[in-house]
Amino acid sequence: MTAAGENGKQAQRKAAMTVLANSDAAEIARCLDAVAAPAYETLREPENGLVMLRGRIGGDGAPFNLGEATVSRAAVRLSTGEVGFGYVLGRNRQKAQMIALCDALVQSDEFAGAVEEIVVAPLRAAMISERNRKAQETAATRVDFYTLVRGED
């Protein structure tokens, strides 16, 4: 595969993971049920853990430990050999497992199109719709302030 093709595949994978991480677990499960996924084995059972969050004052200051966040992770391997990883903030192990399965399917030439069409595209549309709805609600409360200039010298 060429470098451009590999970069396109990675961009598609990244976009799919962004949508899946921001989607509801029940919606992912509903969409994923419609995909005829191949057999897969669990490489890493879904588990909960903590990650350290680091921050910087002003974006360029010295790094400091901000705190910890709970994450769930999982890893699966399809019968065709693709390996998928799923990480999600919070304690939703089932969601991490589904994201790992989708990650592996997106990497597969045989299933990538089906996952994009049946799972990722509807979730992306719902995510964009919700984002637009919230933006409209916020815009409705916008107040424009302006200053009148007096005509004195």
UniProtKB/TrEMBL annotation:
Q: Which InterPro entries match?
A: Phosphonate_metab_PhnG
Q: Name one GO biological process term.
A: organic phosphonate metabolic process
* Keyword line: Lyase
Superkingdom of this protein's organism: Bacteria
Signal peptide feature range = none
The reply to whether Magnesium figures as a keyword in the UniProt entry is no
One GO MF term on file is: lyase activity
Can you say what this protein is called? Answer: Phosphonate C-P lyase system protein PhnG
Q: Can you name the source organism?
A: Bradyrhizobium sediminis
**Gene behind this protein:** phnG
